[in-house]
Amino acid sequence: MEFNIKPFHKKQDTLLGINLFFSLLNDSDLRELNETILSISKSGLARTKFVAVYDGKRAAYKIHFVPKLNEKIQVTEIHVRLESISIQRFQNYQKNLEKIRTQKEFKHIQATALLDSNLNLINFFNKNSLSFEKIIENKTGKTEFTNWVKLLFAGKGDAEIHLSAQLTGSTSLKISFSGFNTEKSMICLTIESEDYKDNNSNQVKGLQFNKNILNSIPADIVFWNMDHQYIFLNENAMKNADLRKWIIGKNDFEFFQYRNKPVEMALKRRETFNRVITSGEPAYLEEHFKTSNGDFHHLRILQPITDFEDHIEWVLGYSIDISSIKRIESRLLKMNLAVEEAMDGIAVLNEKSEYVYVNEAHVKMFGYTNPEDFLGNTWHMLYEKEEISRIENNIFPLIAKNGRWAGETKGKSKDGKTLYQEITLTSLPDGGLVCICRDKTEYRENKDRIQTAEIIADNINSIIMITDPNLKIQWVNNAFEHITGYTLNKVIGKHPGFLHGPETDKEVVKAFSKKLKQGNPCSAELLNYAKDGSKYWIQINVTPLYDENNKLKSFISVENDVTELKNAEINTRNALSKEKELNELKSQFVSIASHEIRTPLASIQSSSDLIQMFISSENVPKDKIKKHLEKISGQIFRLSSIMSNLLTIGKINLDKFSLNKNEVDIENFISKIINDFFGINADGRTIRFKATGTKRKSDIDQVLMSQVLTNLIGNALKYSKDKAEPEVLLEYLPENFKISIKDYGIGIPQDQIPYIYDSFFRARNVENIQGTGLGMVIVKKFVEMHKGNIEVNSIENEGTTFTITFPYT
After folding, report:
1. Rg (the chain; Cα; Å)
2. How far apart are CA 593 and CA 404, in angstroms?
3. How sure is the predictor about 513, in pLDDT bands with cuts at 50, 70 and 90?
4. SS (HEC) of 336-390
5. What DSSP character marks residue 751?
6. Assigned domain for 566 exists
């Protein structure tokens, strides 16, 4: 039976009350046990005691005290175990103990005695608790000792005397004179056991001889005393001589602290040591060290060394380097774990084709639950007769020839279902086989389904695309190549975005990608580009696929070519847009006609009526008639201009204009237009013209270019009335030429500049100035027909500059 008790630190602590057994102990035994426990609580060393009790009959016990230490090397518990022994064994123990105690007292004497001149003993200091009289019991020895002391007091005789064991009655003694106390007339003597010294000398000589032997043994060998202190280490156990000398008298806790090693290892050594001295049996401890040279494993074996009475005096420790064994064991463990945990079925068969080992995967593969269902049976249990015949007649000869075979077999599960296996058979030296197999049944079935699906996918008009979770293409069908022009091997690993182009709607792609990242099904219409650069529209539907752990594994895309439908939709939309635009133009035309045409007609009608009136009068005012005729002529010109612009816009919308280019001196061409159309102005202003750069000719359509310049120069005059004269600047540049028309008039509001090229648009600050809003539409169209570019820079109330740039050809 065992008890857990706390270490005793207080004087009043006793073992009484722990259980009935301890209540039967006498006071002497209890004191001794208390002292033992106090000693154990301080040293952490196990101890064994013998006691006898009387409970109706006399009984004897051997008590084992085993301490438990924490990481701070403090005793936290003492486990007590009682071992019943015979009374005879207890009595033998007491006799041996007394004999040993007496021998030790006589053989280990170190004492100091003070005597006065009358040879009376004043004081006696002795570690062995022996009385002075007991040291020299023989009368002859006492007489010789007394005579020697008297001579010392008389100042005569030798400084020491040697008494044989025969004279003392116990052991040989050397008694030495240590000095006088003259004031008190006392003499001091030192007493030592010569047998002890002789014995030590012999032990030293014997130990030296044993050291030579122990140092020559290629193993770690150490000795500890009963306090678990090192008393010897051979050179193999510790190579460093200084450290080997230092550790003598130290324990493992001190050594591990000195070497900065973990205290847990020292605790395990102490526990093992305690187990040895309490059980009297060898104990084993496995230790693992990490060094700069690698990992090392040692098996420590602690062996008790007893005296002739079978009492433990020392503990011998020796170790075996098991690093290589551990490495092999580790590899074997890993190999065994790999085999046991393998997903493939693994089996070993003997020369009789009987199973001697199967792993769990092999058992489960065939629908069984217990390896014992296989062991002792042959592999025939897993196959039908036809397949057995094929294996024996076709496969086994190949194994006999090559030592190995790999292929597919058709087996059966426990419930009789067909089971296809991918199998590897390897012959063993003893005639057996190693079988590694993998269930291919589902693969075969899936393969058939996949082949069917591939045939269907490759023969439909829709594109089928499979991508990974990162949208990298894994597979496409034949329709993909037919529509895009790209083959499967050219697109694997690519993102489908490589099919997008400049007109692909980026917002649609962005929204589509966002849904895919969220793992949601989605649909969209996208404009893609084929390998040859042609555009095609697809209606795409994407479905995410998840595995059994709900982890996204791929996307399946079904894409239909809707180019024809999309083009029809676009054409319809454009037609509707043009029709809407035409209706708007009609409405705008009606509005313009009601204002721009009606106004000059009203003026013509008014002037005509006045002329008619002037003619009917007696005195015809020719000057007034002339004035109104000129007014009518001007209004007719205005109407003609409006109609011309409307006809031009109509031709532009119907795309009926074509260029008729010829080589022209640009500078002369501009000068002639200014002189012919703007030489004399009603307000007396002229057009300032300037040319810079090296003069060159250009290919232009003079009719169309004339309309561009007359519109721009006319606007410059019209919208800068009473302001500085407009300017026309011609710049000859290396690649092209620029014509700038600048005025200092009313300018264009900034927010309305983007609309100046729209049909019938007129800025809000020109409402009181005649115009149709068609001139800039004509200008922009004719400039673009010449592959030119027009730019405007305007500040309201400061002026406007139009710059047109043309290539020379």
Report:
1. 61
2. 101
3. confident
4. HHHHHHCCCEEEEECCCCEEEEECHHHHHHCCCCCHHHCECCEHHHHCCHHHHHH
5. G
6. no
| Residue 333 included in any domain | no
Closest CA to 687 of 706, 674, 700: 674
End-to-end CA distance of the chain: 118
* Per-residue pLDDT reduced to its tens digit, 185-228: 788 888 887 764 444 444 444 445 466 777 777 778 888 888 88
66 close to 275: Cβ distance less than 8 angstroms: yes
Q: Is residue 210 part of a domain?
A: no
* Interval 541-547 mean pLDDT: 87
Question: Do residues 756 and 630 both lie within one domain?
Answer: no
Task: Place 586 in a pLDDT band, splitting at 50, 70 and 90.
Answer: low
Long-range contacts for 599-605 (Cβ within 8 Å, ≥24 apart)? 599/770, 600/635, 600/636, 600/638, 600/639, 601/635, 601/639, 603/631, 603/632, 603/635, 604/632, 604/635, 604/636
Provide the pLDDT for residue 449. Answer: 61
* 596 Cβ contact list (under 8 Å, min separation 6): 642, 770, 771, 772
Its sign, for the CA torsion 110, 113, 119, 122, is: negative
- To which residue do tokens 């820079």 refer? 793
* Residue finishing a domain among 442, 458, 490: 442
- State the CATH number of the domain containing residue 11: 3.30.450.20
How many residues in total does the chain contain?
809
**Domain check: are 462 and 531 in the same one?**
yes
Tell me: do 65 and 120 sit in the same domain: no
Strand partners, 67: 78
H or E stretch covering 459: none
661, 773, 770, 776: which is closest to 711 by C-alpha? 776
Q: Which helix (H) or strand (E) holds 506?
A: helix 506-517
**Could you tell me if 799 and 677 lie in one domain?**
yes
The model's confidence at residue 390, banded by pLDDT at 50, 70 and 90, is: very high
Q: Are residues 664 and 793 in the same domain?
A: yes
Asked whether residue 192 falls in the same domain as residue 58, the answer is no
Tokens of 755: 């609309």
Angle between helices 702-718 and 775-785 (to 10 degrees): 140
CA-to-CA distance for 540 and 517, rounded, in angstroms?
Answer: 16
The three state secondary structure string of 267-315 is: HHHHHHHHHHHHHCCCEEEEEEEEECCEEEEEEEEEEEEECCCCCEEEE
Over the stretch 45-66, which tens digit does the pLDDT of each residue have? Answer: 888 888 887 666 778 888 888 8
| Count of the separate structural domains present in the chain | 7
In terms of domains, do 671 and 778 share one?
Answer: yes
CA pair distance 216, 422, nearest whole angstrom: 59
**Residue 737 binned pLDDT confidence (cut-offs 50, 70, 90):** very high
Q: Where is the domain boundary, 137, 164, 197?
A: 197
Confidence of residue 3 (pLDDT cuts 50, 70, 90): very low
Query: Cβ distance 806 to 698 under 8 Å?
Result: yes
Q: What is the mean pLDDT of residues 447-457?
A: 63
**Coil/strand/helix, residue 426:** strand
Query: d(Cα 202, Cα 663) in Å, to the nearest integer?
Result: 136
H or E segment to which residue 221 belongs: strand 220-224
Q: DSSP characters for 313-325? A: EEEEEEEEE-HHH
The residue range of the domain holding 620 is 572-635
Domain check: are 802 and 682 in the same one? yes
Asked if the structure places residue 207 within a domain, the reply is: no
Number of H helices, E strands in the chain: 24, 31
Please give the sequence-ordered ranges of beta strands (E in DSSP) within 131-172, or none if there are none: 160-163
Distance CA 247, CA 259 (A): 11
pLDDT score, position 137: 74
Pairing of strands 173-181, 186-193: antiparallel
Average pLDDT of 133-147? 82
- pTM summary value: 0.38
